[in-house]
Design a protein that fits this description.
19 helices; Growth Hormone, Chain: A; globular; mainly alpha; single chain; 2 domains; two-stranded antiparallel sheet
């Protein structure tokens, strides 16, 4: 939408600053938004963008919380009277990631269909369904496995929130600040996994202490309901819809035809997929391998150290992007995969020692490396599509390659999230077939080596890579 020219009474054009004025309509719609206009940004835009970013982070944070609830509850189901085998437990862990990854694709376009503020309200309220559903299911040990699996799948609503949140925030910020804003939005959401793994065991144990009874797992879902309602209320009252925010279906279809999309998506499965996959299984790995260290009693509260993994990974992500800005995304991604491969190999070698503290330290290093890789791999996408995509080599304009890069960001985030399904499934199959997790870790080791080689061959080997100097 073009901003109308405002004139003075004498008929002369007003200063450029006046031409950048915004108009506000009912339903918190904003017309005339142009984040690249310095005058508009300084006068009104920056304050509005920051307000929307704060509530977006909070809503996305709760999305990750709900997405991870079943990974925490699963380890406590047997003690609560549920009779489930190993494969069923790992299905409950992995199903939210399968659904969440799939939902990320349509969620990307719902912002343009309904408005960023409106969809944030709706997507936040949708989190009530898996939260209340979990509370109802885990209160009765006779709940059929199929119902448990359905409720675990509905937790995928939280995983889809990432795509719509990132798509919305990108419209609010100028190009020079998009990276930082999107990094904060992503890191704030990722922290939800850590907070959920810290808070839920504490809440369950404290509830049991207060009621002098058996721990009620229902609190794992119920405790988030007030926060979800607050996020929906805050989005309704404080966020905005931008009329110029439009989804790019044509750009998405074009990006799907780009070979580079599938290369970087493969790499993102290794980085983000490892982060979300290991976040999901970390509580169960500790429970199975080191049952004595599954929880630590602090007064009346039970604390699980599994939250440290996603915490380290979340905090490392922005630094991965910053390192990529300085040294190049491909170099940092190669180093991340090298660290992940070396750490995984060390885990395999040292598992027979049955040393929990060594195991914990190695997994924290693995989470940190995956977090750095998340930031660096995501940072590579704009450069790849600007310099190395089929469209760029065919002479596409900067505007066209920018559209491809924007579409690729959403698609890569969706494909990468499938790693959260694959990792628990491989670990579950390994445990069921061999009574050991080592075969699965050997598979992860091989994957990281292949991903390292792919990154080097495609983006660092200067004789074949046109992006070696820019990615």
């Amino acid at each position: 939408m073009n901003t109308p020219t405002i004139t003075t009474p004498a008929g002369a054009e007003a200063p450029p600053r006046a031409a950048a004025a915004l108009s506000f309509r009912e339903g918190r719609w904003i017309d005339g938004w142009d984040a690249e206009n310095p005058a508009q940004w300084a006068e009104q835009g920056e304050a509005i963008a920051r307000r929307n970013l704060r509530w977006s982070i909070f809503a996305e944070f709760l999305g990750f919380v709900v997405w991870q609830l079943w990974t925490i509850v699963v380890v406590q189901l047997p003690a609560a009277g549920f009779r489930l085998d190993t494969a069923q437990l790992f299905w409950l862990i992995s199903m939210p990631s399968l659904v969440g990854a799939t939902l990320r694709i349509p969620y990307t376009f719902l912002v343009s269909r309904f408005g960023g503020r409106n969809w944030t309200v709706v997507s936040a309220l949708l989190l009530l369904i898996p939260s209340l559903g979990l509370a109802a299911c885990v209160s009765n040990p006779a709940t059929p496995f199929g119902v448990l699996l359905l409720m675990a799948g509905l937790a995928g609503f939280g995983g889809g929130n990432f795509a719509s949140s990132m798509a919305n925030i990108t419209f609010f910020y100028p190009a020079r600040q998009k990276g930082w804003a999107l990094g904060l939005n992503a890191a704030g959401g990722n922290l939800g996994a850590a907070v959920a793994q810290l808070a839920v065991p504490l809440a369950v144990s404290l509830t049991a202490a207060l009621t002098l009874g058996v721990p009620s797992l229902a609190i794992a879902g119920l405790m988030w309901v007030p926060f979800i309602l607050l996020a929906a209320w805050g989005a309704y009252r404080r966020m905005d819809n931008l009329t110029h925010a439009r989804g790019d279906v044509a750009g998405t279809l074009a990006a799907l035809k780009e070979p580079q999309l599938w290369v970087v998506a493969f790499l993102y499965i290794g980085t983000f997929g490892s982060f979300i996959g290991f976040s999901g299984v970390f509580p169960k790995l500790i429970k199975d391998l080191f049952p004595m260290y599954s929880t630590f009693t602090v007064g009346a509260a039970a604390l699980s150290l599994s939250f440290l993994g996603p915490l380290f990974g979340s905090l490392a992500r922005p630094y991965g992007g910053r390192l990529a800005d300085r040294f190049g995304g491909a170099r940092i991604t190669v180093l991340s995969f090298a660290a992940m491969a070396a750490t995984t190999l060390t885990v395999i070698v040292t598992l027979p020692l049955k040393n929990f503290w060594l195991f914990l330290a190695l997994f924290l290093l693995l989470f940190t490396a995956s977090g750095v890789g998340n930031g660096s791999t995501y940072r590579m996408i704009p450069a790849i599509f600007t310099h190395s995509s089929r469209a760029a080599r065919s002479g596409a304009s900067p505007e066209q390659t920018a559209r491809l890069a924007s579409a690729a960001l959403g698609l890569v985030s969706a494909i990468g999230a499938y790693g959260g399904f694959v990792i628990p499934q491989l670990l579950g199959a390994s445990a069921s077939l061999t009574s050991s997790y080592v075969p699965a870790f050997l598979g992860f080791l091989a994957a990281y080596v292949i991903m390292l080689a792919t990154t080097w061959a495609c983006y660092l080997r200067r004789t074949t890579s046109p992006t070696a100097m820019v990615v």
